Amino acid sequence: MKVKPLGDLGVMAVNNRTEKDQPMTNSSNDIEALQSEAEDFRQTFAEVRDEIGKVIVGQERVVEATMTALFCGGNVLLEGVPGLGKTELVKAMSQVLDLKFRRIQFTPDLMPADIIGTNIMQTDEHGRYRFEFREGPIFTQLLLADEINRASPKTQSALLETMQEGTVTTGGYMHTLDQPFFVLATQNPLEQEGTYPLPEAQLDRFLFKVDVPFLSRDELNEVVSRTILKPVVEIHRLMNEARIMQLREVLAKVVVADPIRDFACRLVLATHPDSDFATEDVKRFVRWGASPRAAQALIKAARVRALSQGRAHVAFDDIRHFADEVLGHRALLNYDGQAENIVVTSLIQDCVTSLPEEAA
């Protein structure tokens, strides 16, 4: 998105301002302040990313997406084979960001009360019985839901309210979790025996679904060198919860022009087979497209990416950047798509490349 210079008319307008034109000066100051906040966000984002990089080798895209979701206030579903550092990533983030961290190992016998907590009967000093709520491991700030698809749908549904509202309701009382609250769930794409596919309602509550690729030769050598042949690297705390919430407030100030907002909406509609913006492959292989949450996620993620590059406005490329992570798990294949093993992200990329920036 190009910004045109003011030119001679702009200079004359600035030089000829009077007292009644004071809002023009304030507007200029606001722009300078926002640009300063964007630059501060860029520096902070880079520092946190580099500090996490001391522990996590490679996986730049995964780290970027996870950090973006955290600043957006969203959740992430990581899909990858065991041993790629998914757990280490969450631990490193909790240390660098100084957030409370808990891990839940999801198993078939896990119950909702094992996650959110339960009411137990206690006696007071007078011998009278009363119920007391004992908090479960969900009462944290950074929650790792390891192998989430191994738990039953009943147990998985215990996370729905918390992932969307940041609250837990039990025994007729609603408990509010400390902010920021962030769920990072993992699942193994290879072992599907004894697992329960995540329902669409829960998938939609993940801002991103991120595929964690296997390491390259150089990266694998570096992992072995860091973990076996060299001393353990210490990482330092760079932020706290107050600082994170402060940076989240900057997101609302990032400018999203009407054509860019409409581009994000058209991109979401392009995943619906009955839409005018859908490609031929989407019409053939997709049963249902992304939800309105996807459009919101595209804008949120684009704002973080703009700020991470020191810009106070969103560009078209910012919308495209996280299209796979936002839309890939929200577009559902029909029978033909499943039978032909269609890769959803390839359909998303076709939508991204074929969709014009300017609306017809």
Describe this protein's structure.
It contains 17 helices and 11 strands. It has 360 residues and is of the alpha/beta class. The chain has 2 domains: 34-251, 3-Layer(aba) Sandwich (Rossmann fold), CATH 3.40.50.300; 254-360, Orthogonal Bundle (Helicase, Ruva Protein, domain 3). A 5-stranded parallel β-sheet has the order 2-5-8-1-9. A two-stranded antiparallel sheet has the order 3-4. Strands 6-7 form a two-stranded antiparallel ribbon. The chain is globular. 34% of the residues are buried. Mean pLDDT is 83; it is low at 1-26.
Task: Note the topology.
Blueprint lengths: L6 H9 L6 H31 L7 H13 L3 E4 L6 H12 L3 E5 L7 H4 E7 L5 E7 L6 E5 L6 H4 L3 H6 L1 E4 L2 E4 L5 E6 L12 H4 L4 E4 L5 H13 L11 H11 L6 H12 L10 H6 E3 L3 H17 L7 H6 L1 H5 L4 E2 L1 H5 L4 H11 L6
Parallel strand pairs: 1-8, 1-9, 2-5, 5-8
Antiparallel strand pairs: 3-4, 6-7, 10-11
Helix pairs in contact: 3-13, 11-13
CATH superfamily of the largest domain: P-loop containing nucleotide triphosphate hydrolases
Assembly type of the chains comes to single chain
* Overall mean confidence score, pLDDT: 83
Which fold name is given in CATH as the topology of the largest domain? Rossmann fold
What is the C-alpha radius of gyration, as a whole number of Å? 23 Å
The CATH first-level class of the largest domain comes to Alpha Beta
Order of adjacent strands in the largest pleated sheet: 2-5-8-1-9
Main sheet? 5 strands, parallel
